[in-house]
Amino acid sequence: MKKLILLDTHAIIHRAYHALPPLTSPKGEVVGAVYGFTSILLRIFRELKPDYIAAAFDLAGPTFRHVAYERYKAQRPETPSDLVLQFSFVREILDAFGVPVIQKEGYEADDIIGTIAKKMEQKKDVEVVIVTGDADALQLVRPRVTVYSMRKGITDIVIYDETAVRERYGFGPKALVDYKAFRGDQSDNIPGVKGIGEKTATDLIKEFGSVENLYKALKKKKRPKSISEAVAKKLIEGEKDAEMSKELSTIHTGVDVLFSLDASAASSPVGQPDVSRVLERFGFSSLLKRINGAKPEPNPKDAQASFFSSSSASIKSITTARDFEAIAEGIRGGRAGFFLNGRELYVVIRGKEEVYRIDDAVISSRRTRQAFEGSIAAYDGKRVLKHLAGRGIETNISFDILIAAYVASSFSRDFSPEALLMQEFQVSGGDDPALFGARFFDLADIYEKKLSDGRLR
Prior knowledge:
The chain is of the alpha/beta class. Helix content is about 45%, strand content about 15%. A six-stranded mixed β-sheet has the order 3-2-1-4-5-6.
């Protein structure tokens, strides 16, 4: 089956802007959000391997939702000045990658994406993947339509199909607009019904399925027993708000936009002169390395001049009890740091260059458990402890990089390994365990000092 990727461009740019520090290009332009967007784009090409790809853009000015409700998104602050120019830079990136931009005055990117996804229903051999950081798109999930969602920052990815939506909310994608009609959405200034919260809204959707069904039941002579008198009063008083909120929340799928699969055919960025040129123009040397496979010479003017690919770190596999003895002393001595990459457990020993991947069979052995009598450092200690406990090992966390970063980083909302390396070292590639492991104790020392200096959020 062919794959069409639809990018919710503004949502991705905003997510990247808040996740990464303000990097600058060789010309002195702020390009942190551009870097984050480009990194995501490369990841999409690498992981999703699109046959077709298109980018939906929001245009400046009011949409039909602002006309319907004057206060729609009225509480949002103005776009920061250092972000405004980056939208045009992202257009340069998309042009170099050969990704067409689709936009329509009076409509949001969600509506354009929804319209294209709807058109693709006729193409039984095409699946649609929507890439966004906005949960609104989940209402579009259908057979052959999934959402590639950035849950936190730009590296914590969740892929939503119909089953995943039901697991998260307790009901299907089509009911999400009704859920929002009752509960509202503070981020978009959608009012919902005053006094109706998440739990009540969920219960109402599970029982009645939609706004229309609920109010039809309320208007019968006998009120449904499941709805208390107090809740019924709130719903009756808020009927108009519920109707309007549903209209504001609903993504329109009939926008008059031009789109063709042929014009959206995707080409791999690898070896493309235009792609290399634009990455050089913005100083994204580490991203250039990703697509060319060669190690570029660091340039002090590059946005990622200190990219970490020059590290001599290597990964060694611990597959036997004898291998484990090489790190056992460091663990017993409290000099070990643990982290997970997927389901694989990694350990680094302070003072050693190597990053070790521990085989599950080794970590589960009785002989290994004796090394964990003391405490360990970790990234995401809760997850590491759960992993170890599942293999019969109990220990304590002396320092958790994830928690320390959260407490000490006032500007960031992304505390993934990739975001931390970029924030502290302007390093790309934190999703590579060798790179992250090699900087593990550097990060621990940085955040320990910030905490001891009282540099808290």
